[in-house]
Design a protein that fits this description.
alpha/beta; 20 strands
């Protein structure tokens, strides 16, 4: 038996979610966020499906992620959100950098002149995230300076919400106001319209005034809403494994490290070949369920590096080799990334990226 989890990825669900995005944003450009290996779903296969569905751009965090996509033969326009360590890669792989300051733009200009190539860039404006981007007070002058650099074409401007997923949208609306005002001033000074984009999944679903010329969906493409409402989205990912061995233990017998679980009755304990090395968080120890034969059963004892124990005493006819689902559907039961994230006080993003990126992938259509 191969150890570890398998991620079953439903590409029809991806198309369904993309169709929801398209209905909301209408004719605007879609910049599909496929960073972090497409949130653990596999960037190459996901990118191919999204491009078939009509997205205008892909977006990654770093050039290394873009190289993986390019090496697969994908020719799409790729926006790199953060990286600037090896500028030559942007020219070698025909990538679009997000520029955060004039100094970086100057370095790209020098390489453009040296290589005899022109490069399109997008300028990021920090409207309140406090992470990356030029300050709004400098954005207009920076945009003018960057536009005048040799080999540089300033194609777009962007910003990023820090809390568009909250019910109180006061700060999100303030960020919008800053971006609107700054973008208008830039367009007036340059006498041309740039592609503007700010809306992530939360912005797409809750702030129509944030849609601008393009949008950057991430989480919602993979089937999860940042809100309590699902909006009809379908999760793509099912994480599954199989029972490695079954132990029949007497009452009063400890299970796993630290004896945090002791059987209260004669128990059947199944061991599955998944642990925190596979992205199944140690905080799920005595604090989660899995699905087997269409029923929920509890995780018992501490999650180990390579193994996890589950109590199958109340499930009939469980055998070694039976499928166990850690995330997704089995029969009429479902364990969602929202459920798992709430158990360990995190967010669905962390659940799917952690489990997905460390799993073997199977794609279904």
């Amino acid at each position: 038996m191969n150890r570890g989890p398998v991620a079953e990825i439903n590409l029809s669900a991806l198309q369904h979610n993309l169709d929801i995005v398209k209905r909301i944003v209408e004719k605007r450009h879609i910049i599909a966020v496929v960073k972090a290996d497409a949130y653990g779903h596999g960037s190459v296969e996901i990118s191919r499906k999204l491009l078939q569905g009509g997205v205008s751009y892909l977006a990654v965090a770093y050039t290394e992620e873009a190289r993986v996509i390019r090496d697969s033969g994908i020719k799409a326009r790729i926006l790199v959100l953060f990286d600037r360590t090896d500028i030559t890669d942007f020219f070698k792989y025909d990538l679009i950098p997000v520029i955060h300051d004039v100094k970086t733009a100057s370095e790209f200009s020098k390489e453009a002149v040296r290589s005899g190539k022109k490069i399109q860039v997008h300028l990021k404006i920090d409207t309140g995230m406090g992470r990356l981007g030029t300050n709004p007070e400098k954005a207009v002058s920076d945009a003018i300076e960057i536009s005048g650099m040799k080999g540089i074409e300033l194609e777009g401007i962007l910003s990023h919400f820090s809390e568009a997923d909250l019910s109180d949208r006061t700060f999100a609306l303030r960020q919008l106001e800053i971006f609107n005002k700054t973008g208008k001033s830039i367009s007036e000074k340059l006498s041309r319209q740039l592609i503007s984009h700010m809306a992530n999944s939360a912005g797409i679903l809750s702030l129509k005034e944030a849609l601008f010329d393009a949008v950057r969906p991430g989480l919602m493409l993979y089937g999860y809403s940042p809100f309590s409402e699902s909006y009809g989205l379908k999760p793509l990912m099912k994480i599954k494994t199989r029972v490695l061995v079954i132990r029949n233990l007497p009452a009063g017998h400890p299970v796993s490290y630290g004896r945090t679980f002791v059987t209260k009755r004669e128990s059947r304990i199944a061991v599955i070949p998944v642990g925190y090395a596979d992205g199944y968080n140690r905080l799920f120890s005595n604090n989660s369920d899995v699905l087997i034969r269409g029923m929920r059963v509890p995780v018992v004892g501490r999650v180990c590096m390579d193994l996890t124990m589950i109590d199958v005493t109340d499930v009939n006819d469980v055998s070694e080799g039976d499928e166990v689902v850690l995330l997704g559907h089995q029969g009429n039961e479902m364990i969602s990334a929202h459920e798992l994230s709430s158990r360990i006080n995190t967010i669905p993003y962390e659940i799917i990226t952690s489990l997905g990126s460390r799993s073997r992938k199977e794609y279904i259509h």
